[in-house]
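Here is one chain, start to finish.
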Amino acid sequence: MSTVRVAQTFTGTVHEAERCWYDTDAWSAWVDGLAHVQSVEGNWPEVGAIVRWESGPAGRGRVTEKVIAYEALTGQTNEVLDDAITGRQTVTFTPDADGGEDAVTVEFALEYRLRRRSVVTPVVDLLFIRRAMTMSLRSTLSHFGAQLAHQRTRNGHAA
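Its structure:
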């Protein structure tokens, strides 16, 4: 399996970041490539819950995320499945000691395996796919930061 990981520190508390991250109604504003959430089953974001979403025309197609681990104010791990990959996606929320009272570091990681494999798959993954996956996670995290700042402003916090 290949792994890509990104992290970024934002203004906000762990509670605010977690509430923003798990708000599936707002995912289309910040999840890279997501066109719309099709369904949420179970008690999201708790273990056993499932979110199904569709990407735009050039994206991943239909994506299923099933929660396999969840700890409030800490993070979540999901099994992820789409046409191209199977994997595990993890998000963690950590209060940032250096960032002052209202700073949270969000780490977002994807451990994945390509579903269609050939003898050149490892090279293609190393040179192209891993880079694209990292860029997608980075974009998602960057847009998440903007969404978190927007929600904080809307709730009366300084931006």
